[in-house]
Amino acid sequence: MTRQPYPPARRDDVVEDLHGTPVPDPYRWLEDPDEPATAAWLADQERLFTAEMGELPGRERFKARVAELLRSGSVGAPVWRGERHFFMRRTPEQEHSVLYTADSSGAERALLDPMALDPTGLTTLDAWQPDKEGRLLAYQISVGGDEESSLYLMDVATGTRIEGPIDRCRYSPIAWLPGGEAFYYVRRLPATEVPAGEEQYHRRVYLHRVGTSTEEDVLIFGHGMEKTNYYGVGVSRDGRWLQISASRGTAPRNDLWTADLEASSSEAPELVVVQEGVDAQTGLHFGRDGLLYVFTDRDAPRGRICVTDPTTPQAEHWRDLIPQDPEAVLSDFAILDDLDRPVMLAGWTRHAISEISVHDLATGERTGEVPTPGLGTIGGISERPEGGHEAWFGYTDNTTPPTVQRYDARTGETSLWAASPGAVEVPAVTTEQVVYRSADGTEVHMLVISPPGAEGPRPTILYGYGGFGISMTPGYSASILTWVEAGGTYAIAQLRGGGEQGEDWHRAGMLAGKQNVFDDLHAAAEHLIAGGVTTPDRLAISGGSNGGLLVGAALTQRPDLYAAVACSAPLLDMVRYELFGLGATWNVEYGSAEKPDEFAWLWSYSPYHRVREGVSYPATLFTVFQSDTRVHPLHAWKMCAALQHAQAADRPVLLRNEAETGHGARAVSKTVDLAADQLTFLAHHTGLTA
């Protein structure tokens, strides 16, 4: 096939001196999407992408199979309010999941359908929270992928919108007071009240009374605190206890306060410190038995559960109920108390495989385990707020679309409560968990998904993330199944920086340890090659967001090791990342270029700055989203221009720039198109025939 010429991109002589290091930035002009030269360059890139992809075989087959496998639909675990419950479900023909409610008879009613709100499919339901009685619903929606959630209130019985929009509510928790007359929530300050460029920050906790103007909202917390703070807020079921947490950006630690709303007013709660300035994450659950249950990684990187009296919530009063496990990571818990011997269910992941144990609520003694459908992922354990003997949890694995399971503590049995509504023929695959050693000898786990009986080297996609304590766990993926069914192998490496082995594992891959993440990926690739699974000319890597940084660093550090790269919504200019999107909230994960020692970490691997002319780089596809307000697409724009200029091999460097889509949720049809393009590109450059 004849390679199309790359669109011209001027190289400006922009060099900054940072801590004595000259930092070139020839494509800084691409940071401005409103610049005519940027718009022209993007249009040229779109024409190039369309021309190059139009010549590749197999796209329609990939697209059809991904779409077919996504016709499984999905279903989410219930949220109970008395005899009423709320849940999400997507049927095979729907573009978005719909929020339903069901009464004691089981009769269902759709409450919120994003497509009914906006037939274009560009509106997403970001979050929702019923009040404690299930009579009112707070929900948040955004448009065009910008994730700038607006908050609304609905009367559940009639489906009538009664308040909203309340803007600036991105990532806001909702904590209802009993009776549904008021709630605490988090809202950013108006842009007019903050310095230019800081509009995404400066959150505050407010109390809002239903039926009043937001001008009357009472400021509760956040004044004078760190601008990048995120706040959590919760109110106990009985309305007595308020908790507020504060985290600087995405830092793996939080400060925490409680207030007794019987001893002080909801408008002026008297906050008591639970922990402040402590390097740990802690969450609280006020039990129906009057005790305070503490979920923490303080002195326990894999997590533990403690118990205390709510009037003495500080660490010196905690008593271990379920101590840290030497191997598994604590992920969740629920209390079932309508039993002769009340129990706590504890959710764990062991090398990213989920399990649930049963414990005596008074002593913490392990008394059994909850049967689960297989070796997969459990998505949260929920119980009725007023107590009971039942729990519900989501479950999925590599070949099982999402289901909801019901556990009955009286019988000890687990049963299917709800399945994804679509019937699809899922291909058979073989999943193996392997262990390999990274450059420094650290053992790393990896899931390898292959066609049954596959032998010999074959086209392989290696996927990773390695950041923010996020674990790579098994789950139903139409893209993975489509790739494996076509004859390829798909490997998922559980790199440092993730949460698969607890908080220590996360911290081994952040800040000064970030190179460990890249080394873990290279070692995974070498393990797959040494084991005969694949070869360098048949190996692709794929990652998005922080995983886009991962594969961007990988292709610049070891271009010889990979044949193709799919790099989605990436961070790539690590010198300037803090200046755009939500970048300043991530300097607790990566470091800040303003500090000399942290700049040195970032400079050592910043992919955009590691591109070298005359190097044979892998075939690379950047996929970005024009409305992305988390990771600005400028990272991929600049890196694409740099790679196109430097590429010495006859392998393409392409940019897929999608409008009216953001970093997070999107319509199913958009997901299908993106997956088809990525699979087609990687298949062509690794030799997989669809």
Automatic annotation (TrEMBL):
Residues 1-31 are annotated as: Disordered. GO terms for cellular component: cytosol. This is prolyl oligopeptidase. One of its GO terms (biological process) is proteolysis. It comes from the Bacteria. Residues 9-19 have a biased composition (Basic and acidic residues). GO terms for molecular function: oligopeptidase activity; serine-type endopeptidase activity. Residues 476-687 form the Peptidase S9 prolyl oligopeptidase catalytic domain. Gene3D superfamilies: alpha/beta hydrolase, Prolyl oligopeptidase, N-terminal domain. Keywords: Hydrolase, Protease, Serine protease.
